[in-house]
Each structure stands twice: as structure tokens, then as C-alpha cells.
């Protein structure tokens, strides 16, 4: 799964996780996921999907599109998805 947004990308960058306009894969139940504050989200999605859901963080939606033409944007709010 791809996540994009200035705040989370800046946090990933502060942690030294970014490579250009994205991070490498971040797995559920890891210190990286916990440090970014996304582990609970990844656990909830993994439970719903019945398999591990991992994520890459991109600088913005354009960076996601540049990486994969087969992407779908799902807008979110600060309160969740």
C-alpha cells in the first residue's frame, strides 16, 4: 500500500527512511511502523485483509502515480479512513 502526505513523509525523512521521493517497504509490527505512528493502522488493515499489509510512504500523490500507473487514490481525513 502507498501512503502520501507531507507530515508523514517529513517524519520518515527525519528518521532517515526516505530514498528520493519515497521510503522502502515498511512492515507491520516493526519499530519503523511504530516510530511513524502507523502500526495500529497497518494491524487493522492486516486484520481486515487476512494477510500482512505493508506500506511505502511517498512525498505526494504525484510520486505515487509516477511509480505505478495502477494506483487508486482514497482521500482520508485526520480522523481516519
H/E element string? EHEEHHEH
Strand tally: 4
Uncertain spans: none
Anisotropy-based shape: globular
Indicate the mean pLDDT: 86
How many whole angstroms does the radius of gyration measure?
Answer: 12 Å
Beta content: 5-15%
How many angstroms separate the termini? Answer: 14 Å
Instruction: State the secondary-structure class.
Output: alpha+beta
Biggest sheet details: 2 strands, parallel
SS field, number of helical segments: 4
Description of the structure:
The protein is α+β, with helices and mostly antiparallel strands. The protein has one domain (2-67). It contains four helices and four strands, in the order E-H-E-E-H-H-E-H. The strands form two sheets. A two-stranded parallel sheet has the order 1-4. A two-stranded antiparallel sheet has the order 2-3. A hairpin with a 2-residue loop joins strand 2 and strand 3. The model has no long low-confidence stretch (mean pLDDT 86).
Amino acid at each position: 500500500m502507498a501512503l502520501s502526505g507531507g507530515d508523514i513523509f517529513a517524519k520518515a525523512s527525519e528518521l532517515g527512511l526516505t530514498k528520493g521521493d519515497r521510503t522502502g517497504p515498511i512492515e507491520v509490527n516493526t519499530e519503523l511502523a511504530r516510530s511513524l505512528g502507523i502500526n495500529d493502522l497497518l494491524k487493522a488493515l492486516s486484520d481486515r485483509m487476512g494477510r500482512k499489509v505493508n506500506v511505502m510512504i511517498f512525498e505526494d500523490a504525484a510520486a505515487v502515480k509516477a511509480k505505478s500507473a495502477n494506483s487508486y487514490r482514497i482521500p482520508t481525513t485526520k480522523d481516519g479512513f
